[in-house]
Amino acid sequence: MGQIELEGNKQIVLRLIENIGAGRMEAVAEAVSDDATWILPGDPETFRLAGARTKPEFLALTGMLTSTFASGLHFEIKGITAEGDRVAVEAESHGETALGSYHGRYHFLFKLRDKKVVLAKEYTDSAYMEAFLARLERAAAGR
Fold first, then answer.
1. CA of 124: how far to CAs of 41, 86, 111, in Å?
2. Total domain count for the chain?
């Protein structure tokens, strides 16, 4: 794979991350292959989002999560590397909710085929994310 293709893969992934943060779910859906799998590694006993999701499951979850941020979730890319059909991204996110600030930390590994994401592994601070989800749950329940 040549440098032009590697740079193209990086741009596809960067646009995907930007569109996720902005809640542009149609653009997100367009960037992800219909047979894609999105994985959040972890123990489902301690991190409710852990596991593998199909494209429709990923889109539903992502749409729900990004809608909690008043002006979107802003990603700051800390590093990006491409090799072959894979792109690795280190990122941090910042967003404001009715419950306060959110500051996520991630390492994404994407695999692309035909200019679409076919596999994503999203490594995140699962304890921080779980605490955030618990706060959302309590707020929704009025506690």
1. 8, 18, 18
2. 1
Walk along the chain (143 residues) and give the pLDDT tens digit of each residue: 788 899 999 999 999 999 999 999 999 999 999 999 999 999 999 999 999 999 999 999 999 888 899 899 999 999 999 999 999 999 999 999 988 899 999 999 999 999 999 999 999 999 999 999 898 888 888 87
Say which CATH number the domain at 19 has. 3.10.450.50
Burial 50-65 (b: 16+ CB within 10 A, else e): beebebeebbeebeeb
Domain range spanning residue 84?
Answer: 3-140
Q: What is the pTM of this model?
A: 0.93
